[in-house]
């Protein structure tokens, strides 16, 4: 899991970008 991918996933799930 890449850090950038993890950040993108977190953004999608929490709706906090």
Question: Can you characterise this structure?
Answer:
The chain has 17 residues and is mostly helical. The chain is built from one helix and no strands. The longest helix is centred in the middle third of the chain and has 12 residues, at 3-14. The chain is elongated and about 20 Å long. The N and C termini lie far apart (19 Å).
Q: What is the H-and-E element order?
A: H
Percent of residues in helical segments? Answer: over 70%
Unreliable segments of 5+ consecutive residues = none
Strand content: under 5%
N- to C-terminal distance: 19 Å
For the residues shown, what is the average pLDDT?
Answer: 87
Number of helical stretches of at least 4 residues: 1
Query: Class by helix and strand content?
Result: mainly alpha
Gyration radius from CA atoms, angstroms: 7 Å
Large-scale geometry: elongated
Main sheet summary: none
Number of strands: 0
Tags for this model:
mainly alpha, elongated, 71% helix
What layout of secondary structure does this protein have?
Layout: H1 3-14
């Amino acid at each position: 899991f890449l850090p950038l991918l993890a950040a993108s996933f977190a953004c999608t799930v929490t709706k906090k970008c």
